[in-house]
């Protein structure tokens, strides 16, 4: 806070009129101000540069720099004291110019006898105004500082979140690798497929965390990249030799990480089903496709195999079906089979954002 409230404020009176300056000095000193006199604009500027001036009264007519020119120089000084501009009565245009340029107030000079008390009122008003301005600046600086602190905290939090995602992703990847090892050493085909299935489920979650570690923001995942790495995991799995013709066609769509996990798990289940059942003789094409249709996303997993067997396969646990249903209801998705496709073609259609998220997002936007 400024010192003006505890000690008497110092007024710099800039005027070449020595007699009036003495009058101002005597009158305002009696009213509790400290008065310093400068006889020219330049002398006034030099005096302000030395510091300790709380308020300036500035006359327009002076040899050398006139009042408006001096005012311009004063206002260039950082933390300049407020200026009360003094003019003759016929110069209201100059007074307006001074106010527009940044003077705190103006005062007409030739009201004899009234000049000193009016000057005091104007000076006190200017001091109060400057005090308010200072308080406002301080408050604003405080707001800026806390905004900066907040930004720093948010950045730190983001780094930590990335780090956590990285570690969680790595740990899950280790579990997926263990399942992969176990699948590779299994001798029975069913066991191999079941372990690969489990590996795929874990990898689907792991990949989301790994994507979040590298994504530019932590609130979304690029689906095409995510699905690409998911399928890459599957190709490297124990059942990988049966996925030589596994293809992906996906648009670059950003989506909430939670939804990405659901999509990844569905893809894993349906691809593994195609691997397990579509081609009893070995391998064949399996296509994964993702595209946007308005506000919806459509995921298609298709094969050209034997087609969906209506009567349950003795190898079936039914768990895959249940997992797909659970993920689909989480995504608010419809799951349909294309009856015209030879082989199996499953369409999963779901809104890009969950209804709850979309509602809160539109509420935030309005
Ligand atoms: N692409 C496909 N081609 C032919 N038949 C399929 C295909 N996908 C699924 N099926 C049939 O549907 C049944 C149900 O699949 P579901 O995923 O529910 O169980 P699962 O795959 O047998 O068991 P899990 O997923 O737990 O390993 C399978 O047993 C199989 O007969
Ligand atoms: Mg299955």
In short:
With 366 residues, this protein is α/β, with parallel strands linked by helices. It has helices spanning 18-30, 41-50, 67-76, 92-101, 115-185, 189-214, 223-235, 257-278, 319-330, 355-365; strands at 10-14, 34-38, 55-59, 83-87, 105-108, 221-222, 246-250, 254-255, 286-293, 296-303, 334-337, 344-351.
Q: What share of residues are in beta strands? A: 15-25%
- Return the CATH class of the largest domain: Alpha Beta
Distance between the termini: 41 Å
Coarse structural class: alpha/beta
Question: Main β-sheet: number of strands, strand sense, barrel status?
Answer: 5 strands, parallel
Order of helices and strands, N to C? EHEHEHEHEHHEHEEHEEHEEH
* Uncertain segments: 1-5
Q: Taking strands numbered 1, 2, ... along the chain, how are they ordered across the largest sheet? A: 2-1-3-4-5
Bound molecules: adenosine-5'-triphosphate, magnesium ion
Mean pLDDT: 89
> What's the domain count?
2
- Helix-residue proportion: 40-55%
Q: Based on CA inertia axes, which overall geometry fits?
A: rod-shaped
- CATH topology of the largest domain, which one? Heat Shock Protein 90
Rg, rounded, reads: 40 Å
DSSP summary, beta strand count? 12
